[in-house]
């Protein structure tokens, strides 16, 4: 009952207990790296995405388990502007806490890559590494920049098909642009995620410079681009679904706070909509992975409680 998730793997036996039987092999999933960490394995895979039309990478941390058949819950992490899948893996220190709580952590890249669309690398806050977890509707982005569909319609199925997961028992978290993504994905898909948390999220992108630039390019003018469908502060006002608590974490020495992030707008909108919210303000912490690493254990523990 060995590896289904690694087609090109030099150490099948080391990973066998975390993956589906061979009868469920999905072609095209390739192991790029593996490192032992806190008794489990930090891995990175690539695959050809049908949704995005390019090769995509994602990380998977597989915690140690007692037996070969144990299915585990999953926490998805979405990274921020300029990041790839590597930043969270190398800087957040999440593996220790994922091992303690016996949860799988999956973290995808932040945009399509290698497409060479004109303008996709002209700035750090639009295009490559700045997909904003939405579905673009404007040329030349609309055929490939569909990170929302990639996660909801492709990545979740890919993970559940190839690893020993508790299908449907998943949570989501993220940072900055990725915090925006985590909030939007949970609010637009009631019940899909058991819990959601965000470090320094872009909470009201329709009114901040990063969001206005991204939404204008990917979605078109505000008047016709339905920006409110990708803005957590607007989405929470009409949330109708199972009980959902928003966990917002914000460093008070963040250079982008409040102008780019606007968490208090989301907090007030949530209260008005009757959606409970935890808002933790961290004195002296900034926007960096030093901040994330300081509190990632608290967030993973929070999600683990909801995933029991």
TrEMBL record:
GO BP annotations listed: formaldehyde catabolic process
Catalytic site: 176 (charge relay system), 254 (charge relay system), 287 (charge relay system)
EC number(s) reported in the record: 3.1.2.12
Major location (coarse): cytoplasm
InterPro entries, per the entry: AB_hydrolase_fold, Esterase-like, S-formylglutathione_hydrol
Subcellular location: Cytoplasm
Keyword field contains Cytoplasm: yes
Annotated GO MF terms: carboxylic ester hydrolase activity; S-formylglutathione hydrolase activity
Reaction equation(s) it catalyzes: S-formylglutathione + H2O = formate + glutathione + H(+)
Keywords: Cytoplasm, Hydrolase, Serine esterase
Keyword rRNA-binding among UniProt keywords: no
One Gene Ontology CC term in the entry: cytosol
Broad class of enzyme this protein falls into: hydrolase
Entry's family note: Belongs to the esterase D family.
NCBIfam families: fghA_ester_D
Stated role: Serine hydrolase involved in the detoxification of formaldehyde.
Name by which UniProt lists this protein: S-formylglutathione hydrolase
């Amino acid at each position: 009952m060995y590896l289904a998730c690694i087609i090109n793997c030099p150490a099948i036996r080391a990973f066998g207990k975390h993956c589906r039987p061979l009868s469920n092999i999905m072609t095209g999933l390739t192991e790029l790296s593996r490192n032992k960490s806190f008794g489990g394995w930090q891995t990175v895979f690539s695959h050809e995405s049908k949704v995005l039309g390019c090769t995509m990478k994602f990380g998977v941390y597989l915690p140690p388990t007692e037996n070969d058949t144990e299915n585990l819950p999953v926490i998805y992490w979405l990274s921020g502007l300029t990041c790839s899948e590597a930043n969270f893996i190398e800087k957040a220190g999440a593996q220790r806490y994922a091992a303690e709580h016996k949860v799988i952590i999956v973290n995808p890249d932040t945009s399509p890559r290698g497409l060479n669309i004109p303008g996709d690398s002209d700035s750090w806050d639009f295009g490559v590494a700045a997909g904003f977890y939405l579905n673009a509707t404007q040329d030349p982005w609309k055929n490939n920049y569909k990170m929302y569909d990639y996660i909801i319609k492709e990545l979740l199925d890919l993970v559940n098909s190839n690893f020993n997961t508790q299908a449907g028992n998943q949570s989501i978290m993220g940072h900055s642009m990725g915090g925006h993504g985590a909030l939007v994905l949970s609010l637009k898909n009631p019940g899909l995620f058991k819990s959601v948390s965000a470090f320094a999220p872009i909470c009201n992108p329709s009114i901040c410079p990063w969001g206005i630039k991204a939404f204008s390019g990917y979605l078109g003018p505000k008047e016709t681009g339905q920006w409110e469908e990708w803005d957590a502060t607007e989405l929470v006002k009409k949330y109708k679904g199972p009980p959902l608590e928003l966990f917002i974490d914000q460093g008070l020495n963040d250079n982008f706070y409040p102008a780019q992030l606007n968490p208090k707008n989301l907090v007030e909108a949530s209260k008005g909509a009757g959606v409970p919210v935890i808002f933790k303000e961290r004195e002296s912490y900034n926007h960096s992975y030093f901040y994330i690493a300081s509190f990632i254990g608290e967030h993973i523990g929070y999600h683990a409680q909801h995933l029991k």
